[in-house]
Amino acid sequence: MRLFDSIDSVDRNELAREIAHRAEVIGKIQNVLLQVNIAGESTKFGCAPDAARGLAEEINALPRLSLRGLMAIAPYSPEPEKSRPHFAGLRELRDKLQMETGLQLPVLSMGMSGDFAVAIEEGSTSVRIGTALFGERLTLKQRRPEDPSFTEST
After folding, report:
1. Does residue 101 have a pLDDT over 80?
2. Alpha helices (runs of H) in the chain, residue ranges in sequence order
């Protein structure tokens, strides 16, 4: 925790409490984002949108955490426009949370290399563009092609 300005994937109470405890130990106020599973995908982490208000209030009550906003990962699509409803939904959820709770949530972390322009149009303040900067990730098998016994599950 000494190395990170923000933890952008807080999606449950237990995790928030553990981060708060560790922040207390080192005397730090830790910035966090609430990760929301905006599309309800079983392959993604994040709280359900209807649980976001309760979790946001619980995080806000922890004295060593500073809830700065929301984060979500839209379902992958080669067509960036298909991400728009998810980004709009996260922005609308953030706006609703601010209105109902009085919390200030300036950060909306949404959008990746393939859809960041749409995310920005929908209000993103933080995008993840690793692939655009560094290229496609190699699978484990691609990284170790010389080893025929090496598989993705190794």
Report:
1. yes
2. 13-26, 52-60, 84-101, 116-121, 130-134, 140-143
